[in-house]
Amino acid sequence: MGTLNPRCFIVIVTVTVVRLVSNILHESLGEGPGTIPAAIVVNGVAVFREEQTLTLSQLIDRRSKEYSWLIRLSVNTFGYLCVFVPGVLIYKYTRRIKYLERSDKSPFSNVIRFCFGGANDGERADGRGQDKGGKSGNSMRDFILLLWCLFGLMASYLTWGVLQEKIMTQEYVNAEKKKAHFKDSQFLVFTNRVLGFTITAVYLTVRKQLKQRAPLYKFSYASFSNIMSAWFQYEALKFVNFPTQVLAKSCKIIPVMMMGKIISRNKYEFYEYLTAIMISVGMIFFLTGSTDESKTTAMTTLTGVLLLICYMTFDSFTSNWQGELFKTYSMSSIQMMCGVNLFSTLFTAASLSMQGGFSSSLEFAAEHPKFVLDCVVLSISSAIGQLFIFYTIATFGAVVFTIIMTLRQAIAILLSCLIYKHSISFLGIVGVMIVFLAIFLRVYCNQRLKAIKRRHAGTTEGSSALVGKPRLNV
After folding, report:
1. Quick one: average pLDDT of 40-56?
2. Which helix (H) or strand (E) element contains residue 337?
3. Cβ atoms of 126 and 209 closer than 8 Å
4. What is the pLDDT of residues 323-353, one digit of tens each?
């Protein structure tokens, strides 16, 4: 039992630090005591009886929109560190006392091994590494499956995109006809990740695929970058319109290539650099040619672009880190989704609890029933969309998936412009066309290069049988 004391001490210190920092932030952000009068209605008359303390999340919301996102980002990050730092300290302590080398088979010991040691080499998960596309089969069956994947991806992500923009940009009306915006992007990330984790956990339990070789803590890095990218994505909609955000996602290729060089030492072909430049030029044209009367100040535009850059940076790290995990450990995509969503739920829950984000968001939900419906449908469409992503890649490969998602982006821009009345000039339309042309060119060149390599490999194997007879490749 003595080995539990240091871990308990770490938890107690963490809780104490969280309370202390939370009180300091309340004092620094609040004007005075940080309270507002609370009223009850008696015989049609409002009677003020006491003061209601504002949560940290509500205090941040009272700040100017141009700067509140930076304050919230700092507080969110601190909340994530309250989970991450104790985990690192417990991991270091576990390694130092060589706890994983003991033969103890208690439930607590199994949890520690699952978090920090992973499964044994022989306990390989049923999903053998990354899902691979291109399964062959009956042509009619494949065509029906392709239509099913197309419908699933389009329906889930188009719904998700429309609701994402609605929740973050449109006003909700309560029973008293008062209008208000929902402001806490992190709560949306939390609801999405909770549902995603629940669905994947149930699936893995039913299929008995809970064992895997990767230590659980390995997912925390991808989880952190994932929730940060999602938060930046939601927050950017307060400063730029949805079509701009969709086009910016196409520019992920650039930071993904940079992260690939840094993390995996990847090498890229000439056409990959060319299409990356084309996408950048198209995005510049679109930003120059798109207009939004409600967001015309230089400050909001600069802030929106900065948030989009942060989104793309974190998102590119997520994909590259997950790629490394797929290479190193044997797991299925569903296991990856489950592990990442688990840590995302823990991180966001800790941060929301510290800020009082749960109470303020649930308060808003209680006053605006339409928000509850939008939030639930948003989370369901996000979770279903992730499942369709994995199924499409596993069945038809990444190329078909990329083409479907590119079409989805084009339709999403059109829907957003029609529903929310965004205006795009001719230069902006040219920028959109350049971006999508670059994406299709990239897919085409990638397929051509793979075909040439396969043909070259086939001729090399064939020529190896002709000893001493040189052969020309025509």
Report:
1. 54
2. helix 333-355
3. yes
4. 788 778 877 778 888 888 999 999 999 899 8
* Measured distance CA(387)–CA(199) in Å, rounded: 9
Based on the number of CB atoms within 10 Å of its own CB, is 395 exposed (0-12), middle (13-18) or buried (19 or more)?
buried
**What DSSP line would sit under 26-85, residue for residue?**
HHHHSSTT-EEEEEEEETTEEEEEEEEEPPHHHHHHTS-HHHHHHHHHHHHHHHHHHHHH
Note whether 350 and 83 are within 8 A (CB). yes
Q: Please state the domain extents for the chain.
A: 66-117, 142-454
* Residue 463, pLDDT score: 52
Tokens 């309270």 correspond to what residue?
35
Inter-CA distances, 155 with 148, 151, 160, 387, 392, Å = 10, 6, 8, 13, 14
Q: Which helix (H) or strand (E) holds 423?
A: strand 423-424
From CA 233, how far away is CA 160, in angstroms rounded? 13
- CB neighbour list of residue 141: distance below 8 Å, 6 or more residues apart: none
Per-residue pLDDT at 31: 53
The pTM of the full predicted model, rounded to 2 decimals, is 0.73
Rounded to whole angstroms, the Cα distance separating 257 from 352 reads: 33
Please tell me the predicted confidence (pLDDT) of residue 213.
67
DSSP state of 261: I
Ramachandran area for residue 314 (φ above 0: left; ψ -120 to 50: alpha; else beta):
alpha
The residue ranking higher by pLDDT, 3 or 326, is 326
458 or 200, which is more confident?
A: 200
DSSP state of 290: E
R_g (Cα) of the chain, nearest Å: 25
pLDDT, tens only, 154-211: 999 999 989 988 998 889 998 888 899 898 889 999 999 999 899 888 988 888 776 7
| Element housing 178 (H / E) | none
**Other CB atoms within 10 A of residue 265 CB:** 7
Q: Which residue's entry shows tokens 């669905």?
A: 199
User: For residue 432, what pLDDT is reported?
Assistant: 80
Alpha-carbon distance 138 to 390, whole Å? 21
> Which H or E element spans position 158?
helix 139-169
DSSP conformation letters of 187-208: HHHHHHHHHHHHHHHHHHHHHT
CB of 54 closer than 8 Å to CB of 35: yes
* Sign of the C-alpha dihedral computed for residues 250, 253, 254 and 255 taken in this order: positive
Closest Cα to residue 311, out of 378, 398, 247? 247
More confident of the two residues 410 and 126: 410
Please report, as a single letter, which amino acid is at residue 54: L
